[in-house]
Design brief:
Elements: H1 6-15, E1 22-30, E2 36-37, E3 49-52, E4 59-65, E5 72-73, E6 85-87, E7 102-105, E8 110-113, E9 124-129, E10 133-134, E11 141-144, E12 149-152, E13 162-169, H2 177-194, H3 206-229, H4 235-259, H5 276-290
Antiparallel strand pairs: 1-13, 2-12, 3-10, 3-13, 4-9, 5-8, 6-9, 7-8, 11-12
């Protein structure tokens, strides 16, 4: 029987606070169906959004009335940051200032006046903006979450040679089932190798279950630390590697403490020490032989 399970390990990992990073609007040029390497690996599954700007000039929303400080829905969502222009007239003689006169919800495509705005209440303002076209996974592009690679699909909606803007989250906490199962096997093998005769693989003591869980987590966290160190160099990867390594050390200390009462003492091997007296005797014998 096994003293711990994949579900138990995964529950502990889900509670571990390992840094993740959200990336927005990373620019990549997709040529043919060649893969491009994103700036990170180990992406959170389905966290990505691949976008392009297909407009040659800003979209004109026409004359719209901003009332009070209520949100006004524009015709498009996913607006391109810092591209919204609000003016009192179509000739752009009076252009209002974002943040001081109005605010924009870029993701949802909304705009509103702010308190103290220079925009007169309930008068016509003219609005222009760019918006993103959102592309569809497995129709327009393919993505390798583990390797952090992206490519267009030839028959998809992304033109060859187009610039895309990619959002995603790095998943420092993502651990595969295979890694967890292998860690459980290794941890329980280590325990069985030193288990006292009073216990066996079928023992059901809670301490063995807890210790096996902690030792399995030690192995998982150490493997993740090594994995993050091999990723593309970045401050985020280095920070995540340090956190995984610290978690591994913490779980290892606790594991051996928990398991101590179930295990045979470890036999340490080392060089045999020679006392000064023994050394002097050896030296005297050597001198006698030499004479």
């Amino acid at each position: 029987m096994s003293w711990t399970t994949l579900a138990t390990i995964r529950k502990h990992l889900s509670d571990a606070e390992v840094a993740s990073t959200t990336i927005e609007n990373q620019e990549q040029v997709l040529i043919g169906t060649d893969q491009v390497q994103l700036l990170h690996k180990s992406l959170t599954t389905a966290s990505e959004e691949v976008k392009s700007i297909d407009l040659a000039s800003p979209h004109s929303a026409g004359g719209l009335s901003l009332s009070g400080v209520s949100w006004l829905n524009l015709a498009h969502a996913n607006l391109v940051p810092e591209t919204v222009v609000v003016a009192a007239d179509q000739a752009l003689e009076t252009v209002y200032v974002e943040g001081s006169d109005y605010v924009v919800d870029y993701e949802n495509g909304k705009i509103k006046r702010v308190s103290g705005s220079s925009i007169p209440d309930e008068t016509t303002s003219y609005i222009w903006y760019f918006y993103f076209t959102i592309h569809t996974k497995d129709t327009d592009y393919e993505i390798d979450y583990s390797g952090g690679k992206l490519n267009r699909i030839a028959i998809g909606a992304i033109p060859d040679g187009a610039t895309v803007f990619v959002d995603y989250t790095t998943s420092a906490g993502t651990v595969t089932d295979d890694l967890i199962n292998q860690a459980i096997t290794e941890a329980e093998d280590k325990i069985l190798a030193r288990l006292q005769e009073a216990y066996s693989a079928s023992s059901t003591d809670q301490g063995l279950k807890t210790g096996a869980t902690e030792l399995s987590l030690t192995i998982v966290c150490n493997a993740k630390a090594m994995d993050m160190m091999l990723k593309l160099p970045s401050d985020e990867s280095d920070g995540a590697a340090r956190q995984w390594a610290e978690l591994s050390r913490r779980y290892e200390r606790q594991a051996w403490k928990t398991l101590d009462r179930f295990l045979q003492p470890r036999a340490w091997r080392g060089a045999q020490a020679i006392s000064n007296q023994s050394w002097q005797h050896y030296q005297q014998e050597s001198d006698a032989v030499g004479s």
